[in-house]
């Protein structure tokens, strides 16, 4: 049950001195690693032992990224087992749901951006406005399963401040409201991590997240984004720019990529070498890259156009 939705008083702050296990999840380019570095520094500033591990092999391709941060008097393993995360921070809604089982039942704190980054594979129908195969749980349903939960449109808050990439710092501000760490420690860590030119916006984003969480902790009805719509359509697909390269010297013309491209945008030329016939139709799904037996294709995607 959501403590935030069933108590009149604000939930107690997490006792950092006893140690903490925090998972941070999202997709490449969202700033997962900045949050985990900030938490590692916070742990160190409390005089605790810190261990951190991360997976970010697909980070530059919009792939899944996650990080475990553990701190305490003594920490042996850098990874968090299922059901043992005190906090799960999700920078993308469906990613948060995917890792929910890692959160401590009854007591875990779930903090999620309701922003959706819908993968091309979720698009089963190309009809305009067709629904997508994407997580359909509402924030209210999810928050009811966790000890304490907050779901907000952190990206919109950050965009309103002038920099949508500061959504991760908004979420850090939300987390700070649930931890017994001094404001001075948080500010020192932000000043260490944020480059000088984005320091001011990061401080504003942190304060905005903190203010949002303070309000939500005082009024449970504010702890989830009431405007969140579970019906996902093509309009929710993020703007992605794709760089698709075929190494002609390595292509042996097997035709696999041509046959299996879901968008039918590849073909073989007169030399039996694959080429991108319809670049405007390419979604950057990576299928051709993964299936080419000769590693002749390189697909790079970046969020934003
Ligand atoms: S990445 Fe490859 S398989 Fe996917 S749409 Fe583009 S060309 Fe087709
Ligand atoms: S799968 Fe690879 S080798 Fe086969 S046609 Fe495509 S690029 Fe060439």
TrEMBL record:
Domain (4Fe-4S ferredoxin-type) ranges: 242-271, 272-302
Pfam families according to UniProt: POR (PF01558)
Keyword Iron-sulfur recorded: yes
UniProt entry keywords in alphabetical sequence: Iron, Iron-sulfur, Metal-binding, Oxidoreductase, Pyruvate
Membrane-spanning parts: none
Gene3D superfamilies reported for this sequence: 3.30.70.20, Pyruvate-ferredoxin oxidoreductase, PFOR, domain III
GO molecular function: iron-sulfur cluster binding; metal ion binding; oxidoreductase activity, acting on the aldehyde or oxo group of donors
PANTHER family reported in the protein's UniProt record: INDOLEPYRUVATE OXIDOREDUCTASE SUBUNIT IORB
Protein known as: Pyruvate ferredoxin oxidoreductase
Organism: Rhodopila globiformis (Rhodopseudomonas globiformis)
């Amino acid at each position: 049950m959501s403590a935030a939705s069933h108590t009149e008083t604000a939930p107690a702050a997490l006792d950092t001195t006893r140690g903490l296990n925090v998972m941070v999840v999202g997709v490449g380019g969202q700033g997962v690693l900045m949050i985990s570095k900030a938490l590692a520094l916070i742990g160190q500033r409390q005089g605790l032992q810190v261990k951190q591990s991360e997976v970010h092999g697909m980070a530059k391709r919009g792939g899944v990224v996650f990080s475990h941060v553990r701190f305490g008097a003594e920490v042996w393993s850098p990874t968090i087992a299922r059901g043992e995360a005190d906090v799960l921070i999700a920078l993308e809604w469906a990613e948060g749901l995917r890792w929910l089982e890692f959160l401590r039942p009854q007591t875990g704190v779930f903090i999620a951006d309701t922003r959706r980054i819908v993968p091309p594979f979720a698009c089963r129908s190309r009809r305009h406005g067709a629904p997508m195969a994407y997580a359909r749980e509402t924030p209210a349903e999810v928050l009811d399963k966790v000890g304490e939960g907050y779901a907000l449109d952190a990206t919109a808050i950050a965009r309103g401040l002038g920099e949508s990439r500061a959504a991760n710092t908004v979420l850090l501000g939300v987390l700070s409201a649930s931890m017994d760490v001094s404001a001075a420690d948080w500010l020192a860590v932000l000043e260490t991590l944020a480059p000088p030119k984005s320091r001011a916006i990061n401080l504003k984003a942190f304060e905005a997240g903190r203010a949002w969480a303070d309000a939500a902790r005082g009024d449970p009805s504010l702890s989830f984004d009431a405007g969140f719509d579970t019906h996902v359509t093509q309009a929710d697909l993020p703007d992605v720019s794709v760089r698709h390269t075929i190494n002609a010297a390595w292509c042996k013309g097997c035709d696999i990529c041509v046959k299996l491209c879901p968008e039918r945008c590849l073909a073989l030329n007169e030399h039996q070498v694959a080429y991108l016939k319809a670049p405007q139709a390419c979604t950057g799904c990576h299928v051709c890259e993964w299936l080419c037996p000769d590693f002749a294709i390189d697909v790079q995607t970046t969020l934003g156009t």
